[in-house]
Amino acid sequence: MTRSVRRTRTLQVAGAGAAALLALSACSSSDDSSDSSSSPSAAASGASSQKLSGTVTVFAAASLKESFTTLGKEFEQQHPGTKVSFNFGGSDTLAASITSGAPADVFAAASAKTMKIVTDKGDAVGTPATFVRNQLEIATLPGNPDKIASLKDLTKSGLKVVLCDKTVPCGAAAQKALTASDLKLTPASYEQDVKSALTKVELKEADAAVVYKTDVHAAGDKVEGVEFPESAKAVNDYPITLLKDAGNATAAKAFIELVKSAEGQKVLNQAGFLKP
Amino acid sequence: MKTLARTGRDGAVTPRSGARRRRAARGVPLPLLVPALAGLAFLLLPLLALLIRAPWRTLPDHLTSTEVWQALQLSLVSATAATAVSLVLGVPLAWLLARTDFPGRGFVRALVTLPLVLPPVVGGVALLLALGRNGVVGQWLDSWFGITLPFTTAGVVVAEAFVAMPFLVISVEGTLRAADPRYEEAATTLGASRFTAFRRVTLPLIAPGIAAGAVLAWARALGEFGATITFAGNFPGRTQTMPLAVYLALQDDPAAAIALSLVLLAVSIAVLAGLRDRWMTASS
Amino acid sequence: MTHTDETPAGVRAEDVPGEGLDARLVVARGAFRLDVALTARPGEVVALLGPNGAGKTTALRALAGLSPLTAGHLRLDGAALDRTPPEARPVGVVFQDYLLFPHLSALDNVAFGPRCQGASRTEARARAAEWLARMGLTDHAGAKPRRLSGGQAQRVALARALATRPRLLLLDEPLAALDARTRLEVRAQLRRHLAEFEAVAVLVTHDPLDAMVLADRLVVVEHGRVVQEGAPADIARRPRTDYIAQLVGLNLYRGQAEGHRVRLEAGPAVATTEELSGPAFVAFPPSAVTLHRDRPAAGSARNLWRCEVAGLETHGDQIRADLTGELALAADLTTVAAAELGLHPGAEVWAAVKAAQTHAYPA
Question: Where does the signal peptide begin and end (chain A) (predicted)?
Answer without folding.
Answer: 1-25
